[in-house]
């Protein structure tokens, strides 16, 4: 009887111990699962923090680049806008203007007229660019006839085109319209065509054509038969916020327009690409989303 009691107690003890071990194992497994969940949360949080740190770093780099670019814009603009005022000061400093030779006076006023025109254009461009910095995308879009916009720009540079005996070949559909920001489109066209004239060949040609390759974008190409660009200049034009192409004789300009163009065109979902046409010259491809374009029937 006593031995049976001992056996019973042993069995009960074994059952209780196994139960306790089972409960202990359950809590250990449960705790391990909770630890894994917490570890996963920490890993996810660390991953998010790492991504945010990378984003913040990129954002800071973009801010530095933007700040540097803005400083350069203001520096160039303030320098070039002084020119007409300096000329006026020189003119006003003359005690008796009647003593100035008529041809010299004519030349002074001609130079002053050119300086004022360039300064006004630059001021308009900088103001447009400044406005664009206040918002992510430019609003106030409207239907713009591309051919009319091009013809208006060609009219502005009619004297230069005639002086350099440049042939204009404009094959853009006269009924083709874009729903976009008119001021920015005009600004981009003005700068691209202006540079095509400046760096074209005397007696050469400028070709403008609208390309529809059935992709999701329309493309306007402006080409001239001027000197091809070096790989360094081409890289700066396409991938850097400024360019340092040296101007030859009678090819004035601030070197600011293309940089502003690249910044502005992004705000109307456009793209700009410079290319060498080997043995021919240089072309600029300007593209926009297909949804922004329509042909008037």
Automatic annotation (TrEMBL):
Its EC number is 2.7.13.3. One of its GO terms (biological process) is osmosensory signaling via phosphorelay pathway. It catalyses: ATP + protein L-histidine = ADP + protein N-phospho-L-histidine. Pfam families: HATPase_c (PF02518). SMART domains: HATPase_c (SM00387). Residues 76-292 form the Histidine kinase domain. SUPFAM superfamilies: ATPase domain of HSP90 chaperone/DNA topoisomerase II/histidine kinase, Homodimeric domain of signal transducing histidine kinase. It comes from the Bacteria. GO terms for molecular function: ATP binding; phosphorelay response regulator activity; phosphorelay sensor kinase activity; protein kinase activator activity. Keywords: ATP-binding, Kinase, Nucleotide-binding, Transferase, Two-component regulatory system. This is histidine kinase. It comes from Sphingobacterium multivorum. The gene is sasA_1.
